[in-house]
Structures are given as C-alpha cells and as structure tokens.
Amino acid sequence: EKSLIFLGLESSCDDTAAAVVRHAPGTPPEVLSSVVAGQTELHADFGGVVPEIAARAHTEKLDICVEEALETAGMSLTDLDAIAVTAGPGLIGGVLAGVMCAKGLSAGSGLPLVGVNHLAGHALTPRLTDQTEFPYLMLLVSGGHCQFLIAKGPEEFSRLGGTIDDAPGEAFDKTAKLLGLPQPGGPSVEREALKGDETRFRFPRPLLDRPGCDMSFSGLKTALLRERDRLVAEHGGLYRQDRADLCAGFQAAIRDVLAEKSRRALSEYLSLSPTTPTLAVAGGVAANKSLRMALEAVCEQFNTAFLAPPLALCTDNAAMIAWAGIERFRAGQVDGMDLSARPRWPL
Ligand code: KG4
Ligand code: ZN
C-alpha cells in the first residue's frame, strides 16, 4: 500500500467544498485543507434551498474552492493521486456541477476519478478522524438525512432505519421559520430553547410505539404550528417566553425520539457482538448540545463509546469525500469518464 493524496469535491446540497487529504498506511489520515463555501444567504428569502440557485452557485464556486484547497495544502494537480467527487445522492444540478468539474480536472491531468456516495462520506468520517475500526454504528442526522447505519466496510453498510418523512434539521429550519427566527434554524432554535421550559408543551414523539428504528418528524411541525396559532389567537402575538417554551418543547421531542431510537439501534448492533462498540454521529444536527448529552447518556447505559467528530467534519465538507475516495480506491474501485450523477443513490 502506498501513500495517497486525494482532492475531494462536494456540491450535492447547499455547500460547495474542496479538500485535500493525505493518507500514508499505518498513520492517521491528514486533512491538508478543507474549504467550504456556504450558500445560506442566497436561499435566505426562500425558506429552503432553491435547486436552480444552488446549481448555479456551485458552478461559480467550484473552481475557486479547488484552487484554494490546493493552495492551502501547498499542492498542485501533479502532486495528487486521484480526484474524488460526490456523485450523489443530492440535488441533480449540484451533483452534476461537481461531477463535470471533476471530469474536467481528470481529463486535463490524467488523474483517476473516484465517484463517492455522499452518505458514505458522512458514514466513513469516524475513520478519518479517529481511525474507528469496522463495524461501528452510525447516526446520520442532518438537514437532508436521518438514518442509522452499521458501517461494516468501505462499501458495506446496513441501514437499520431512518426517517419516513422530514429530516430533523429540516424540522428545526421549518420551526425557526414558523417562529420568526433566523436560518439556519438549528442554532437559533437551540439558543431560544435554553431560555425555555421544555415541559410546558408536550409535542408528539411519533413511532415510539412501534418497533424498529424508523422515525417521523413531520407531525411535530404541524403540532407546533397549531400551538403557535392558538397562542397568537389568544393574545394577538407570541410572547418571548412562549417562543422559548415552544423551542424547548420541540427540541425535547426530537431529542427524545433520537435517543430512544438510538437505544434500539444499539440493541440491534450489539447483537452482532462487535469487539469495540462505538456509536458515531454525523450531520449538522449533531451540533445540538441537548441531543449530544442525551446520546452520551444512552451510550453510557450500553457501555458503548460515543464519537462526535469535530463539527467542521460533521457537516457537509469535501474532506470526507476525499477520504471516502481513498477508502474506495484502496478497495480497488475507480471510475471512468462515464461516471454519472445519481440524484437518488441509497447506500
Ligand atoms: O449536515 P448539514 O450541514 O447539511 C445537510 O443538511 O446536509 O446540516 C445542516 C442542518 C440544518 O438543518 C441546521 O438547522 C441543522 O443542521 N443544525 C442544527 C444545529 N446546527 C445545525 N440542528 C439542531 N441544533 C443545532 N445546534
Ligand atoms: Zn450531508
């Protein structure tokens, strides 16, 4: 096995990212650079990501991100061993922009091309940050995803369950919008929740009565909307304390569902009797402190290590794509110029 240096590209949602990762066998991988250009302001007026706006921004920003990632790493294209790119799942325009950029770089330099599944990128992050051994349990919880996976190998994942409708981050963002709080909703709802009483409003914890690890979060938003409208009708607006209590109650509901489903996922995972059990999290919602504390407590109960990678590698980034590319490459996988963008691509 030789030392490898990969450039990674990511553009499947609303972050344009490029990164350089080096891995010498027997040593921990090194993130030599990781550039992320967000688009929050571009979509701020729309209450969600607008695919056409995102695709255009990716096309504009990819080259700049690549240049900056190479410069920060002190590398040129000739120092690299391959180019890894997110080939899905995600918004088709963005994924296409990334794949076309990677193909251009590959054609110009002769470097091999490695297509990466965005979810595999998140799911392999514990190996980038902590050299976690397979198998481990992974909770992916972001604005677009929510699922439990057992990572068994670089391309071998089994899905234990996930959301059947909204992702928790999406629910946080919609809640913020309903309460007039700034986007992204997660951090602003969390801030409000700190001042609130989580017991005042009892929001539903859907699907806890059913076995398995599936979850549902769309009803929560409807319940919140109903309470908000009731309060507004009652006293002509929302008091500051009302808003804080709504946020606290909402956050508690999400936390309780994720904690309980984590218990079930851990039970299933531990029945496979791995040697060193680990629950790792990834995705922007993993930044939530109340959720983290709840998951830590669950892991303690189960005698399992809890791993939360640094936030910059939990949220969308290209270092995880470069790393997943290295893992695929070491497993003997490369792609050609026929690599296609796959908007839907389950693990
Ligand atoms: O992983 P990410 O950066 O992008 C994708 O969705 O793929 O996650 C962003 C999501 C947003 O919905 C944001 O509101 C949520 O993560 N988020 C949080 C917090 N910080 C970010 N949700 C809850 N609490 C937070 N502190
Ligand atoms: Zn993501």
Automatic annotation (TrEMBL):
Pfam family, any one: TsaD
Positions that bind Fe cation: H118, H122, D316
Chief site of localization: cytoplasm
Comment on bound cofactor: Binds 1 Fe(2+) ion per subunit.
Database matches in SUPFAM superfamilies: Actin-like ATPase domain (SSF53067)
Gene Ontology MF: a single term: tRNA N(6)-L-threonylcarbamoyladenine synthase activity
Keywords (A to Z) from UniProt: Acyltransferase, Cytoplasm, Iron, Metal-binding, Transferase, tRNA processing
EC number per UniProt: 2.3.1.234
Binding site for substrate: L140, V141, S142, G143, G144, D173, G186, E190, N288
Catalyses which reaction(s): L-threonylcarbamoyladenylate + adenosine(37) in tRNA = N(6)-L-threonylcarbamoyladenosine(37) in tRNA + AMP + H(+)
Localization terms from the record: Cytoplasm
Signal sequence extent: none
DNA-binding keyword on record: no
Domain (Gcp-like): residue spans on this chain: 30-323
Family membership noted in the UniProt record: Belongs to the KAE1 / TsaD family.
Known function: Required for the formation of a threonylcarbamoyl group on adenosine at position 37 (t(6)A37) in tRNAs that read codons beginning with adenine. Is involved in the transfer of the threonylcarbamoyl moiety of threonylcarbamoyl-AMP (TC-AMP) to the N6 group of A37, together with TsaE and TsaB. TsaD likely plays a direct catalytic role in this reaction.
Protein name: tRNA N6-adenosine threonylcarbamoyltransferase
Lineage summary: Bacteria, Pseudomonadati, Pseudomonadota, Alphaproteobacteria, Rhodobacterales
Primary gene name: tsaD
